[in-house]
Amino acid sequence: MRLGAYDYLTKPAQVDEVVLTIERALERHQLLAAVEQLKIRVRHGSSLARQMGPSAEVQRIVEQVDQVADSNFTVLVQGETGTGKELVARAVHEASPRRD
Fold it and tell me: Per-domain residue ranges for the chain?
């Protein structure tokens, strides 16, 4: 258990016991992945707001970043020079599952 094992089974293992243990391990893995995603979103959201300011408009941009980060579409960020396009693009990338 010290080396990272999730659970153990005693011999002879029953089929339904094996299935239940596997299901619990998969569920735990999915929950841990979801927690990591949420941590990243919290970090990038507050980071983006700190860099761009705490206005209602920035909050709307953060919400849009969250929406497009979950999609598998190409995103085009347009705007005037110096408006934070690169910050938004980085935030989309950091919030997406493809960041790694």
Answer: 15-99
**Angstrom distance (rounded) from CA 75 to CA 80:** 17
> Using CA of residue 58, residue 90, residue 68, residue 40, what is the dihedral sign?
negative
Residue 48: which residues within 8 A CB-CB, separation 6 or more? 58, 61, 62, 65, 87, 88, 91
Q: pTM of whole model > 0.90?
A: no
Distance CA 88, CA 61 (A): 8
CA 46 to CA 35: how far, in whole Å? Answer: 17
> Which pLDDT tens digit goes with each residue over 25-69?
999 999 988 888 777 766 665 566 666 666 788 778 878 888 888
Residues 64, 69, 74: CA angle, nearest 5 degrees: 100
Both tokens of 47, joined, read: 């980071």
